[in-house]
Design brief:
The complex is a heterodimer. Chain A is of the alpha+beta class. Chain A contains 15 helices and ten strands. Chain A has a single domain, classed as Cytochrome-c3 Hydrogenase, chain B, CATH 1.10.645.10. Chain A has a three-stranded antiparallel sheet. A three-stranded antiparallel sheet of chain A has the order 8-9-10. In chain A, helix 6 runs antiparallel to helix 11. The longest helix of chain A is centred in the N-terminal third of the chain and has 30 residues. In chain B, 14% of the residues lie in helices and 27% in strands. Chain B has two helices and seven strands, in the order E-E-H-E-E-E-E-H-E. The chains are: A alpha+beta, B alpha/beta.
């Protein structure tokens, strides 16, 4: 016997631990099944793209921290690369290497957070998250040592980086790099064959390779669908063409593969940091640029492989000291393009896991 | 492209190609299907207010050939701009075009979900337009910066 049911609307968020920030999902459900899902965003909209039009190119660097507050270094880097391309500023080699080291440390910190909260959503309450926070703390300590801030680092500058790392940075980062492979092996042992994780994540939120490409999905989500696309290889910036690393890919495009791709990327990041520390050249860490940089009228698009995907900055100059247009290509937002496809027809717990596996940062969605 | 689709391209340089806003879907479909272009995905899209017209820039990316194709359109109507949506070709345009509509006020014909995104329905105006809450002839800040030589005006 079946009971007649009618669809109802369920609001998840804006304040809910599973939405990773101030993010609202408006879900139309029929019984246990999701019929339609819609996201309501904008709670964190700070109109950065408009504000940036009134500030100089250098003054805009701190804004980029506050978009994706879990990967401030990558955001700084992408913006500085865009302005350097626009103004034709050369970067010293030491600065390129330092940028690689800090961007990869940031990727480790961000992936720790992503995997930890994903496991949290999947049901392993808090313990793995705290394990991963242990390593993240050490990375944030390194940031604090170098530039005085832990989250909103404001470290990269147009033409280099703001500070050379202090002497105590090197033993600390060496110790961390020596320790991390064991830690990642520990997570692998704890989680990869974990029955709960497999039951919750395998076969959930599948995106095929063709859909992912057509839907502008980038980053670990695209690679989990089996597309070996990584901007560090495809369009090398900084010194990434000098390092030896691999692009991990998944096969099924489900949540479990996204988790595995992030875990493997952490291993590759450690490899890159190791090589960058060994080959770190001496020399200046910054080129001097004018206080008010006035690039010639034109436009530049620079992109980096951020922890969440292709992080692009499109900067238009009209010859003034401030950008005429400043646009951030936010991977967190664009990776949600296929949210409907991932969630409709599944049950609510599966949708929460699928959302967790996209690794959104609401500051970056809303900007 | 000019040979395959006569009349669509209005201007081009080595770096970008400008197409007519009412023929965008044809241009996008051709770029997507042509094996030498192979524009598989939209990597970035952005609207730019150029005071007398709007420019919408699509950065397309070919994954197999590893090349970037920049497509621009120019919308001359500054009051009620509208153009074709790239959504029929690229599902990745869904949220990006909604964002451009929300902040820049450009309507995309053929987009399935043309609503405000960050701001609420009924918000007055489109903030990223240059004339949004602007006072005429008022430029905030100093005309030139400390230690800067010359008297460049903004």
């Amino acid at each position: 016997m079946t009971t007649a049911s009618e669809p109802y609307v369920l609001n998840i968020g804006p304040q809910h631990p599973s939405t990773h920030g101030v993010f609202r999902l408006r879900v139309v459900m029929d019984g246990e099944r999701i019929q339609d899902i819609d996201m309501v965003v904008g709670y964190l909209h700070r109109s950065m793209e408009k504000l940036a039009e009134e500030r100089t190119f250098t003054q805009n660097i701190p804004f980029t921290d506050r978009t994706d507050y879990l990967a401030a270094m990558s955001n700084n880097l992408g913006y500085c690369l865009a302005v350097e391309r626009l103004a034709g500023v050369e970067v010293p080699e030491r600065a390129s290497f330092l940028r690689v080291i800090f961007a990869e440390l940031q990727r480790l910190a961000s992936h720790s957070m992503a995997n930890g909260t994903f496991i949290n959503d999947a049901g392993a309450w808090q313990t793995p998250l705290m394990y991963m926070f242990r390593e993240r703390e050490k990375i944030l300590d390194l940031f604090e040592m170098t530039c005085g801030a832990r989250l909103t680092t404001n470290y990269m500058r147009i033409g280099g980086v703001s500070f050379d790392p202090p002497p105590e940075f090197y033993p600390a980062v060496e110790a961390l790099v020596a320790e991390l492979p064991d830690r990642i092996a520990e997570y692998t042992e704890l989680l990869v064959d974990n029955e709960i994780l497999i039951a919750r994540a395998r076969g959930v939120g599948i995106i095929s390779a063709a859909d992912a490409i057509n839907g502008s999905i980038t980053g670990p989500m695209l690679r989990a669908s089996g597309v070996p696309w990584d901007l560090r290889k495809a369009d090398p910036y900084c010194a990434y063409d000098k390092f030896d690393f691999e692009i991990p890919v998944g096969h099924n495009g489900d949540c479990y593969d996204r988790f595995m791709v992030r875990l493997e990327e952490m291993r590759q990041s450690v490899r890159i940091i190791r090589q960058a520390l060994d080959g770190l050249p001496s020399g200046p860490h910054k080129t001097e640029i004018p206080l008010a940089l006035r690039p010639a009228p034109g436009e530049a698009y620079a992109r980096v492989e951020g922890p969440r995907g292709e992080l692009g900055f499109y900067v238009v100059s009209d010859g003034g000291p401030a950008p005429a247009r400043f646009h951030i290509r936010a991977p967190s937002l664009i990776n949600l393009s296929l949210l409907r496809q991932m969630a409709v027809g599944t049950s609510l717990p599966d949708a929460i896991v699928a959302l967790g596996s996209t690794d959104i940062v609401v500051g970056e969605i809303d900007r | 492209m000019d040979r395959a689709l006569p009349g669509v391209v209005t201007a081009s340089t080595d770096e970008w190609v400008e197409v007519r806003p009412d023929r965008l879907v044809d241009a996008m479909r051709w770029l997507h299907d042509d094996p030498e272009m192979d524009a598989a995905t939209i990597s970035n899209m952005c609207g730019v207010d150029r005071y007398d017209h709007f420019e919408v820039v699509y950065h397309l990316q070919s994954l197999d050939l590893n090349q970037q194709i920049v497509v621009k359109t120019r919308i001359r109507d500054h009051e009620a701009p509208s153009m074709q949506s790239a959504y029929p070709v690229y599902s990745g345009a869904l949220l990006q075009e909604r964002e451009v509509y929300d902040l820049m006020g450009i309507r995309f014909e053929g987009h399935p979900d043309m609503r405000r995104m960050f701001l609420w329905e009924g918000y007055p105006g489109f903030p990223l337009r240059k004339d949004f809450l602007q006072i005429a002839d008022h430029h905030p800040g100093l005309p030139h910066f400390p230690f800067e030589t010359g008297t460049q005006e903004r």
